[in-house]
């Protein structure tokens, strides 16, 4: 009787292909990831269980929080480069402050800001790392000098112009959890004065057991 | 796997050094492990870094107050939540002068306001079914006082979403009796 010989199998598999795929994906994710820029006004948002995400473009974010000096400040941010350019151009024309092409290009790449329009050029000229340290005073929202209202009006108009009337600017409020209600109410009133009755509140994430 | 063949030629026979046949395969397990770990990290961080948001729709603020018509609401269906300072919360059912329940202090979270809301929601539905309008659910009136903070408001709006209360309103106006209540808590 012939003895059946079991073939000895190697336990190690060829991992070359797997390694190739893994690194291909890794490269893709690294390249698509966007670096997080430090915010000019860091806020601690309250958390909620709602899980809808904010859009990436055609969005204006109003940040309300306390600065390092303990005062409540309002910052403004628009997402979308073309929209930012157009908005700055519109604001400059409306309030009589001239911005050059270069300023507009720089402004398009910036993030949130919180200065009166007259001082915006100084902030634009700063380096990205210095902007967060500049101790910006916030956008004026008094009834005498309500620049937030102007920013909202101009950016909404710019969104409609750029998209040919198909899109509308979405507004999100990003408030600090410890901010008192009257401050938030003031911003909501400014929005409602412009008939913006529907907006988003930026929140963190949490589970249902709290 | 990784070792150096240090010369041990001295004791060999005949002095002939035979090169050891080495495998050309490298063990890639560790490398693949690392690659997948990094992939997982980048995948999760790209989608998680996007902020969450909560939709809020407010009723139209009509400056022409003469046009507004007061709608009559069954007081058996209304629940009023008053947000006070230092994360305090008070509720009552019905009218403050003749409340069905409360006014009572209650805690935020799952064992406090959520349990109460779910209970009240059920009783209101039973009540509405009793009078032949089973679709009329609970109406929650949220009254944030001047001392309450933004977190309180978001917490309450979140409770509305969790408990499935469809009709709610934010009313930052206080009657003198309610102001007394706010000052007490």
Summarize this structure briefly.
Chain A is α/β, with parallel strands linked by helices.
**What share of residues of chain B is helical?**
25-40%
Oligomer: heterodimer
Strand content of chain A: 15-25%
| Fraction of residues in H or I helices of chain A | 25-40%
Number of strands of chain B: 6
Q: Mean pLDDT across all residues of chain B, rounded?
A: 76
Strand order of the biggest β-sheet of chain B: 4-3-2-5-6
The chain pair with the largest interface is:
A-B, 57 and 47 residues
Shape of chain B: elongated
β content of chain B, as a range? 15-25%
Number of domain units of chain A = 1
- Based on secondary structure, the structural category of chain A is alpha/beta
Going by helix content, strand content and strand pairing, the class of chain B is alpha/beta
* Number of helical stretches of at least 4 residues of chain B: 4
Query: What are the low-pLDDT stretches of chain A, counting only 5+ consecutive residues below 50?
Result: none
Task: Name some characteristics of this structure.
heterodimer; A: 210 residues; alpha/beta; 5-stranded mixed beta sheet; 7 helices; 39% helix; elongated; B: 185 residues; Nucleotidyltransferase, domain 5; 19% strand
Describe the structure.
The complex is a heterodimer of chains A (210) and B (185). Chain A is of the alpha/beta class and 210 residues long. Chain A has helices at 16-32, 81-95, 101-109, 120-125, 128-131, 147-163, 181-193, and strands at 47-48, 52-53, 59-66, 72-79, 170-175, 198-205. Helix content of chain A is 39%, strand content 16%. In chain A, strands 1-6-5-3-4 form a five-stranded mixed beta sheet. The relative contact order of chain A is 0.18. The model of chain A has no long low-confidence stretch (mean pLDDT 81). Chain B has 185 residues and is an alpha/beta fold. Chain B is built from four helices and six strands. Chain B has helices at 29-48, 110-130, 150-163, 176-184; strands at residues 52-57, 78-83, 89-94, 99-105, 139-144, 167-170. A five-stranded mixed beta sheet of chain B has the order 4-3-2-5-6, covered by helices on one side. The longest helix of chain B has 21 residues, at 110-130. Chain B starts with 28 loop residues before the first helix and ends with a helix. At the A-B interface, helix 1, strand 1, strand 2, strand 5 and helix 7 of A face helix 1, strand 1 and helix 3 of B.
